[in-house]
Amino acid sequence: MQIQVNEKIMVSKTLFSEQQIKDRIKELAQKINQNFGSQEPLVVLIVLNGAFIFAADLVRYLVMPTEIETICLKSYEGTNSSGVVKLLTPLSENLEGKNILIVEDIVETGRSIDFLLSQLKAKKAKKVEVCALLNKPESHEIPMQIDYSGFDIGKNFVIGYGLDLDGRYRNLPYIAELMS
User: Fold this and answer.
1) How far is C-alpha 47 from the chain's CA centre?
2) Please, which residues have CB within 8 angstroms of residue 18's CB and are 6 or more apart in sequence?
3) How far is CA 43 from the centre of its chain?
4) Which stretches of the chain score pLDDT less than 70?
5) Among the residues of 60-143, which ranges form H helices?
6) pLDDT digits (tens, 9 = 90+) for 74-113
7) N- to C-terminal Cα separation, the chain
8) Where is 53: in which H helix or E strand?
9) How many CB atoms lie within 10 A of CB 130?
């Protein structure tokens, strides 16, 4: 597929098919179920907008009682990180003593996750873990542990399955890499 970015035409190559993504989500959910158990409630904190498709599919396989919370952060302009994490929606006030699973579409620099972890620590969450569909270890600027990682990828820009380019292409049922 060809995609226009500004005045440049880029080609996309499928990295992960719809079936590969579905299979990996089931595996991630099994690990989360093992680690959190089925009794205590889990707050699933979805980072919007990118993680909403991934999170919707993931929570269907979780066995514990779940509460869904969303948060909106912004750190990208086009295909580049701005370097600044902006909180566009506030965190819930009622997170003290709760188990929280942050669900993110992609961890690149690590700034967004680091920002969220510090916010949740200040809210006195009981246990916080991170689940990301995609992880770019080579791009991490902040050392961090991703508790549940769907797929590790390289530094190229990706779209589909919730990931976008200026708000477009989230609806693709697969993940594709943009190449010039």
Assistant:
1) 6
2) 161, 173, 174
3) 15
4) 1-11, 75-83, 180
5) 111-122
6) 765 555 555 677 777 888 888 999 999 999 999 999 988 9
7) 12
8) helix 52-59
9) 22
CA angle 61, 165, 70 (to 5 degrees): 40
**Helices and strands counted in the chain (H then E):** 3, 10
pLDDT at 46: 97
pLDDT value, residue 156: 86
What residues are paired with 148 via a beta bridge? Answer: 131
pLDDT at residue number 4: 61
CB burial of 134-172 (b: ≥16 within 10 Å; e: otherwise) equals: bbbeeebeeebebebbbbebeeebbbbbbbbbeeebbeb
C-alpha dihedral, 31 to 152 to 6 to 173, nearest 10°? -40
